[in-house]
């Protein structure tokens, strides 16, 4: 649990109008990513809003509709190394499409909580759980950085170090989670300059590096690989 912060049940995201919009304006995809065994509703070149004016999109920026390379690496690692999560509790921070949380469920985690500040991401996660025949996990659509957490065995976060202010908030919070509860932390990132140049980088141990599929490279300005890091404060 998160103590004073109750997670929403999956059913609370099932707004019929929103569901219909997401199903109409995303495409089910499993190819071109590091995890072909996970199917996701994503924004692809065949979708209307790939070319449409951004201001016509009726919700917040759909970051959840992209399978970002850091999340791909984390999900691949968890699927290949189920012992990293099996029978443990996993918090997926900045979950987006929910792929890493889904990978944790598939790999036998006993408790999974997905967190993203965008409530539309919560709807997308419910749809993606359905696509993969995974029982939906609790979802929390609030900013929990700097809050007091209960003891999670593992926190996973991908592609969260794109903004200096966010990174500066994440570092001390992750350090506190790790030192207070012994929580393990895995970070996925393709080597963005904001991440490589941040002071947290000196506290990381490289776990595994994956070569990115060509389509993911094209969507991410030519970045060629994505790395899973273990945070060791």
Automatic annotation (TrEMBL):
Reaction equations catalysed: L-lysyl-[protein] + 3 S-adenosyl-L-methionine = N(6),N(6),N(6)-trimethyl-L-lysyl-[protein] + 3 S-adenosyl-L-homocysteine + 3 H(+)
Keyword list, A-Z: Cytoplasm, Methyltransferase, Mitochondrion, Transferase, Transit peptide
GO cellular component: mitochondrial matrix
GO MF, any single term: protein-lysine N-methyltransferase activity
Localization per Swiss-Prot or TrEMBL: Cytoplasm; Mitochondrion matrix
Location (main, coarse): cytoplasm
GO BP term, pick one: methylation
Coiled-coil residue windows: none
Gene3D superfamilies from the UniProt entry: Vaccinia Virus protein VP39
Pfam family, one: PrmA
Family to which this protein belongs: Belongs to the methyltransferase superfamily. ETFBKMT family.
Protein name (database record): Electron transfer flavoprotein beta subunit lysine methyltransferase
Organism in which the protein naturally occurs: Chelydra serpentina (Snapping turtle)
């Amino acid at each position: 649990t998160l103590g004073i912060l109750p997670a929403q049940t999956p059913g609370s995201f099932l707004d019929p109008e929103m569901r219909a919009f997401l199903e109409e304006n995303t495409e089910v995809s499993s190819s071109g990513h590091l995890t072909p065994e996970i199917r996701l509703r994503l924004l692809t070149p065949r979708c209307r809003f790939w070319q449409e004016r951004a201001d016509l999109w009726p919700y917040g920026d759909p970051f959840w509709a992209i399978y970002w390379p850091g999340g791909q690496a984390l999900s691949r690692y968890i699927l290949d190394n189920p012992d990293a999560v099996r029978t443990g509790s996993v918090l997926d921070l900045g979950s987006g499409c929910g792929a890493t949380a889904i990978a944790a469920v598939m790999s036998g985690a006993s408790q999974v909580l997905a967190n993203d500040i965008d409530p539309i991401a919560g709807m997308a996660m419910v749809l993606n759980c359905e696509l993969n025949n995974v029982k939906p996990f609790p979802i929390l659509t609030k900013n929990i950085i700097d809050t007091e957490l209960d003891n999670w065995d593992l926190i996973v976060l991908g592609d969260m170090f794109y903004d200096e202010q966010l990174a500066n908030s994440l570092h001390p919070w992750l350090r506190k989670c790790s030192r207070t509860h012994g929580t393990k932390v895995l970070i996925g990132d393709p080597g963005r300059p904001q991440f490589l140049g941040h002071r947290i980088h000196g506290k990381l141990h490289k776990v595994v590096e994956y070569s990115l599929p060509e389509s993911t490279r094209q969507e991410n300005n030519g970045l060629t690989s994505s790395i899973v890091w273990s945070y060791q404060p």
